[in-house]
Write a structure and sequence with these properties.
The complex is a heterodimer.
Chain A: H1 3-30, H2 45-52, E1 60-62, H3 68-73, H4 78-85, H5 119-133, E2 139-144, H6 151-162, E3 167-173, E4 176-177, E5 180-181, H7 182-185, E6 202-206, H8 210-225, E7 231-236, H9 254-261, H10 265-275, H11 281-304
Parallel strand pairs in A: 1-2, 2-3, 3-7, 6-7
Antiparallel strand pairs in A: 4-5
Chain B: E1 2-5, H1 6-20, E2 24-28, H2 44-48, E3 53-55, H3 60-72, E4 76-80, H4 87-104, E5 114-119, H5 134-138, E6 144-146, H6 151-163, E7 168-173, E8 180-183, E9 196-199, E10 204-208, H7 212-224, E11 230-234, E12 237-239, H8 243-253, E13 256-263, H9 268-280, E14 289-293, H10 302-308, H11 312-323
Parallel strand pairs in B: 2-3, 2-4, 4-5, 5-7, 6-7, 10-11, 10-13, 13-14
Antiparallel strand pairs in B: 1-8, 6-12, 9-11
Helix pairs in contact in B: 1-6, 3-4, 7-11, 8-9
Classes of the chains: A alpha/beta, B alpha/beta.
Chain lengths: 319, 324
């Protein structure tokens, strides 16, 4: 099998892994099985998958409140993720962080983030560290359409361009900042237009087309690795669920969602894999079964894991 | 022993740590060729070059955030805020990001960074360039908060700050920059959380830090003339707080005055008073007194600024009040 075929299959598996993980969380949240709240990534899987497939293990990402997809795509461990979301002591953050604060330094994941726009300056800083050490690593800063209006994002874009930092800003434009449509929160239609103000490439891609995302991000990553500086890639996509689970979505028409569900990135890509003969139907089913088992194991691990002890509250306040 | 200014001591600590550890770098507004707004980083750009002493745009969130990201990725950045007042622009990056990452991520990522910032009134810089904000930082778990009073402490505490694996807020009083003091040739890092008893006494304990230490010592001298023996404690750091040294002193003197330049309301003095009341109220012979600025923004005109800024006179008055 050629490398590109292998990569295509990996990208599909990542998308399917995210889809199944998030669908399970949707179910668990409805059943009251998980504490706090969750922001699901359903419908946006192609962005995380296509982006992270362009990265190496030692590259960095900064993520968002809707971060499960990014963490999974960067190689996050499903068991530790699920355990964290269940608030268990075996989770990524020993139950200290939850859904919005999963990080894994060994995979370059500098954290999901509960603050909209919080990750931009941190991404610039990680890029600065790479540049300072003369390495060829890259940082991807995932940020939403809402975050694109935050001052922190503009400061990070400016610093990255002024210093030619190896940062790829991957915008997930899902059309809504919580309940507010982008038509009300910004005067422009395309967030990629903002790149011009920072003298960096601004590219628009179909965020539901994993290959398009991967090609655009790969080009930006190559450019950054060679010292060419930052880029901004706007991925047009849609979140199927509300801002958070429990959001009744009274601010948007059901028909709008239906239109986007028709553009579901998964069947679209699996059809291509089948049509191009990269996978047979049987192989696809086998991959699904493998991931389903992996997920079942993660759920069992999370369910069986112990909760933290109250005294653990004092651990890790300081290094 | 070498006689040095507070500013030179900070500059020396920065230089020596940069020579010792290539992971240490400096950035902030005008810290490069310009040498910093107050001149603290003078000469470092010439010695280490732009790669390690870098001017940033005037974007404080990006400065604090870039330090956070660089620290997460393995460097030991020391960033400068031109005035502590500008933290308002960048507070999220400090208190929601840098301060919490180690905890939120279950100890998996450390953030070894220092934010240096001058604070304090006294140069006619008015309400947005003169505040003392240590209480804001002390309120946030995950941050360490350092307020040196002397050149020797500024040097030794900054070495410790740069070597610490946590975000440290290093607050320099701008009126102390020109103050001279002895810095031993063999000076090394001074551990956090160890207060300095600068004057021993038996009748009253005065707890202070930063510039207010000088006012406390001056007040102690005045009070000695009135037959009152004052013990002066310089906290050096408010997080970690050396409460044991304070309690031990209070158990001896049976009375306490806490003095700082920041607004008295909800200041560090309130926290110390509460902790002492909780642990040692039976030892106290008098109410705990706090000396701090009035609950107003810092005013501009010299007589107003002087009326705002507490000093030795206010400390003496507080002591005499509880001794009468």
């Amino acid at each position: 099998m050629t490398k590109s075929k292998e990569k295509m299959i990996q990208m599909y598996m990542t998308m399917y892994r995210i889809r199944q993980f998030e669908s399970k969380l949707q179910e668990f949240f409805a059943d009251g099985k998980i504490p706090g709240f969750v922001h699901l990534y359903l419908g946006e899987e192609a962005v995380a998958s296509g982006t992270c497939a362009a990265l190496r293990k030692d590259d960095y990402i900064t993520s968002t409140h809707r971060g499960h997809g990014h963490v999974i795509a960067k190689g996050g461990d499903l068991k530790m993720m699920m355990a964290e979301i269940f608030g268990k002591s075996t989770g990524y953050c020993k139950g200290k962080g939850g859904s919005m604060h999963i990080a894994d330094a060994s995979l370059g994941i500098l954290g999901a983030n509960g603050i909209v726009g919080g990750g931009g300056p941190i991404a610039a800083g990680a890029g600065m560290a790479i540049q300072y050490r003369g390495e060829d690593g890259v940082v991807v800063c995932f940020f939403g359409d809402g975050a694109s209006n935050q001052g922190t994002t503009q400061e990070a874009l400016n610093l990255a361009s002024a210093w030619e930092l190896p940062v790829v800003f991957v915008n997930e434009n899902n059309g809504y900042g919580i309940s507010c449509p982008t038509s009300k929160s910004m005067a422009i239609t395309d967030i990629a237009d903002r790149a011009a103000g920072y003298d960096m490439p601004g590219v628009i891609v179909d965020g539901n087309d994993v290959i398009a995302v991967n090609e655009a991000v790969s080009a930006a990553v190559e450019r950054a690795r060679k010292g060419g500086g930052p880029s901004l890639i706007e991925c047009k996509t849609y979140r199927w669920r509300g801002h958070f689970e429990g959001d009744a979505c009274t601010y948007r028409e059901k028909s709008e969602l239906d239109e986007w569900v028709k553009k579901d990135p998964l069947p679209r890509f699996s059809k291509k894999l089948l049509d191009d003969g990269i996978l047979s139907k049987k192989e696809l089913e086998k991959l699904h079964a493998k991931i389903d088992t992996e997920l079942q194991e993660a759920i069992a691990f999370a369910e069986e894991s112990p909760l933290p002890e109250p005294a653990d509250i004092f651990e890790d306040v300081y290094a | 022993m070498a006689q040095k200014t507070y500013m030179q001591a900070i500059n020396d600590a920065l230089r020596e740590e940069m020579e010792r550890d290539s992971n240490v770098l400096i950035f902030g507004e005008d810290v490069g060729q310009f040498g910093g707004c107050f001149g603290v980083t003078k000469g470092l750009f010439e010695q280490f070059g732009e790669k390690r002493v870098r001017d940033t745009p005037i974007t404080e969130s990006a400065i604090i955030g870039a330090a956070t990201g660089a620290a997460a990725a393995g460097l030991r950045p020391v960033c400068e805020l031109m005035f502590v007042d500008f933290i308002g622009v960048s507070m999220d990056q400090l208190f929601n990001q840098a301060a919490k990452m180690h905890y939120m991520f279950g100890g998996k990522i450390s953030i070894p960074m220092v934010v240096r910032a001058p604070q304090g009134a006294g140069i006619g810089a008015a309400a947005q360039h003169s505040q003392s904000l240590e209480a804001w930082f002390m309120h946030i778990p995950g941050l360490k908060v350092v307020l040196p009073a002397t050149p020797a402490d500024a040097y030794g505490l900054l070495l410790t700050a740069i070597r610490d694996d946590n975000p440290v807020v290093f607050l320099e009083h701008k009126l102390l920059y020109g103050v001279e003091g002895e810095v031993p040739e063999d000076a090394g890092p001074i551990p956090f959380g160890q207060a300095n008893i600068c004057r021993e006494g038996t009748d009253v304990t005065i707890v202070a830090f930063s510039k207010m230490v000088y006012s406390a010592l001056e007040a102690a001298e005045t009070l000695a003339g009135k037959g009152i023996s004052v013990e002066v404690i310089d906290l050096r750091t408010v997080t970690p707080l050396d409460i044991d040294t304070i309690l031990n002193s209070v158990k001896k003197t049976h009375s306490l005055v806490v003095a700082h330049e920041a607004v008295k309301v909800a200041g560090v003095g309130a926290e110390i008073a509460a902790q002492v009341a909780e642990s040692a109220i039976d030892y106290l012979d008098a109410p705990i007194m706090r000396v701090g600025a009035p609950f107003t923004p810092v005013p501009f005109s010299p007589p107003l600024e002087e009326a705002f800024t507490p000093g030795a006179e206010e400390i003496v008055a507080a002591v005499l009040k509880i001794r009468s």
